[in-house]
């Protein structure tokens, strides 16, 4: 009798092949699948990595954004005040309000507040020194509050159209030079404290809060990052050549600004030393050989550092050096520009390593070095 079933029509070797294929497919499906536990562990690892890396990325982004905004604003303000100088509108005001009302014609200002209403145009508090209590900005009533005791003028707060908020005190001793295109008009005319992030946090000096060289203190509080009484001078900023710290000047930029910055000669390509000088506000705002030696004695807890050459057998104090190390591309060392140039090709520097320090005389092409810190002084 003929068997009509499909089973009977399949040859033995075909049945074995089909069975083997079925088992193989089942094995492959199981081998390539993820269990719930494996998926959860993977997600947890991704979460941990994100938690570690994202804050650093956000911090770097914010610092770059703040630095860029500061550069753009200061250049725009300088253009406005230079134009005022050219048109002989920079000098001759007896109070800050009259000056600001003229400034409005050269740079767009959306709101002006007198010294009785400072916090209607500016933040209520500013952290001037990290770790200290914030300063009540309603107390910033006059030029003396910004460190200019000999300027008998009140402060005025303004909001610029680009979102920058500022407090300004006018210098009644301002002079003008209408035929001098390189005249540092902003430096001559005002003390200005400004916040490039508007009313957003962190409202901290050295981050979104910046100022020109005429602001030497805030409500009687020095803006020194390290103890001035121990160093003998005030460090107001420590800037690395990355993440929005400072960048190089081209030769053309250096040539244009060298008079204001007190630079004698310019490098033939990217000039990091000149960029550091520009960020600090001039050669006089950069540390001298003697000051960098004092900084070394402070950081190594000694008084034996030689002002020139190399001093060895030292031990860097990691706490005292922390702000420099965090700004430096190096892991256990940092290098600092001085304000002393050696001509168009090089500038002096001091290197601070974990167990030794040395003063570098600037032989060769050093002004294009990309790993030095700009240490700015308030003097």
Core attributes:
379 residues, alpha+beta, 2 domains, six-stranded mixed β-sheet, five-stranded antiparallel β-sheet, globular
Describe the structure.
By secondary structure, the protein is of the alpha+beta class. It has two domains: 58-222, no CATH class; 228-378, no CATH class. The protein is 34% helix and 18% strand. It contains ten helices and 15 strands. It has helices at residues 6-9, 12-31, 36-86, 96-103, 185-189, 228-231, 251-261, 272-280, 289-299, 322-327; strands at 109-113, 125-126, 135-136, 155-160, 165-170, 190-195, 209-211, 217-218, 221-222, 234-239, 309-311, 333-341, 347-353, 357-360, 372-378. The strands form four sheets. Strands 10-15-12-13-14-11 form a six-stranded mixed β-sheet, sandwiched between helices. A five-stranded antiparallel β-sheet has the order 1-4-5-6-7. A two-stranded antiparallel sheet has the order 2-3. β12 and β13 form a beta hairpin. α7 (251-261) crosses α8 (272-280). The longest helix has 51 residues, at 36-86. Residues 1-10 and 24-28 have low confidence and may be disordered.
């Amino acid at each position: 009798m003929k068997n009509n079933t499909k089973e009977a029509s399949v040859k033995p070797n075909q049945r074995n092949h089909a069975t083997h294929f079925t088992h193989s497919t089942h094995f492959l499906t199981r081998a390539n699948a993820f269990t719930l536990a494996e998926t959860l562990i993977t997600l947890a690892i991704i979460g941990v990595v994100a938690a570690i890396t994202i804050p650093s990325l956000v911090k770097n982004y914010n610092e770059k954004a703040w630095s860029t905004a500061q550069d753009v604003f200061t250049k725009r303000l300088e253009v406005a005040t230079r134009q005022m100088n050219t048109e002989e509108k920079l000098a001759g005001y007896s109070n800050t309000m009259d000056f600001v009302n003229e400034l409005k014609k050269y740079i767009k200002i959306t709101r002006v507040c007198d010294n009785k209403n400072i916090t209607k145009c500016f933040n209520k508090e500013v952290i001037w020194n990290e770790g200290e209590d914030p300063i009540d900005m309603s107390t910033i009533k006059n030029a003396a509050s910004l460190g200019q005791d000999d300027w008998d003028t009140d402060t005025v707060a303004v909001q610029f159209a680009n979102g920058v908020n500022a407090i300004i005190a006018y210098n009644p001793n301002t002079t003008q030079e209408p035929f001098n295109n390189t005249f540092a008009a902003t430096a001559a005319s005002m003390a200005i404290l400004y916040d490039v992030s508007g009313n957003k946090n962190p409202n901290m000096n050295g981050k979104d809060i910046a100022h020109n060289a005429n602001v030497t203190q805030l409500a009687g509080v020095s803006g020194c990052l390290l103890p001035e009484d121990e160093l003998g001078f005030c460090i107001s900023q420590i800037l690395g050549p990355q993440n929005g710290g400072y960048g190089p000047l081209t030769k053309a930029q250096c040539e244009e600004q060298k008079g204001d910055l007190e630079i004698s000669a310019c490098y033939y390509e990217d000039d990091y030393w000149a960029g550091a000088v520009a960020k600090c506000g001039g050669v006089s705002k950069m540390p001298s050989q003697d000051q960098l030696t004092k900084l070394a004695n402070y950081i190594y807890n000694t008084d034996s550092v030689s002002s020139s050459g190399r001093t060895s057998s030292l031990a860097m104090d990691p706490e005292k050096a922390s702000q420099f190390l965090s700004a430096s591309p190096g892991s256990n060392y940092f290098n600092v520009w001085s304000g002393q140039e050696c001509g168009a090709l090089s500038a002096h520097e001091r290197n601070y390593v974990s167990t030794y320090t040395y003063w570098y005389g600037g032989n060769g092409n050093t002004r294009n070095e990309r790993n030095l810190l700009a240490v700015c002084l308030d003097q």
